[in-house]
Write a structure and sequence with these properties.
Order of helices and strands: EEHEEEEEHEH
Radius of gyration: 20 Å
Strand content: 35-45%
Shape: globular
Number of helices: 3
Number of domains: 2
Distance between the termini: 46 Å
Number of strands: 8
Strand order of the largest sheet: 2-1-3
Length: about 170
């Protein structure tokens, strides 16, 4: 069964303004990371050939279908209510936050995230431990995450999406 992957390239012009372009590819299950890197390399080479801008960065993302998760949102869930989990990375004094949109009411104790909750502990263990020998979670500077520093709830506005989804014509 083939998976879909998204290749992205960001191009900078002479004024320093950046724009991204994206392409999608079908990837065989037997494909390796090296195969994906080769596909991205060819994509960025061909973009560079037809663009006067400079390719400054890019990414590869597998487009995954969810498996064994909720089939509908729980009543009362709001993506604006976000749980932020701040982690410490190896050799970094800065914190990196993992955001969880629509944080579950079941993991809150009043207005705080209950760090003793089993689901929270499992989530934190995943990000700080990864899967031994297979992968490790990192911050945005590719430094392995070592420990949870703190966690809190915040509200991140999604007003444009809310307005579009609740628009009624008279």
């Amino acid at each position: 069964m083939a998976q879909q992957a998204r290749l992205s390239v960001t191009v900078r012009d002479e004024w320093g303004i950046e724009a991204a372009t994206t392409a999608y590819i079908s990837v065989d299950d037997a494909a390796t990371m090296a195969n994906l890197q080769t596909a991205w390399f060819h994509f960025q080479q061909d973009i560079d050939a037809v663009s006067d801008g400079q390719v400054v960065r890019g990414s590869i993302a597998l487009v995954m279908a969810p498996d064994s998760v909720k089939t509908a949102p729980n009543a009362g869930s709001r993506v604006e209510q976000t749980g932020l989990f701040n982690f410490i990375g190896t050799a970094s004094p800065r914190r990196w936050a993992a955001a969880v949109p629509a944080i579950a009411a079941a993991v809150l104790s009043g207005d705080r995230i209950d760090l003793a909750n089993g689901d929270v502990a499992t989530f934190v263990a995943l990000l700080t431990g990864g899967v031994s020998g297979t992968y490790a979670y990192t911050n945005d500077h590719n430094q392995p995450i070592t420990a949870l520093a703190d966690a809190f709830t915040s509200f991140r506005r999604k007003r444009k999406q809310l307005q579009r989804s609740s628009f009624e014509v008279a």
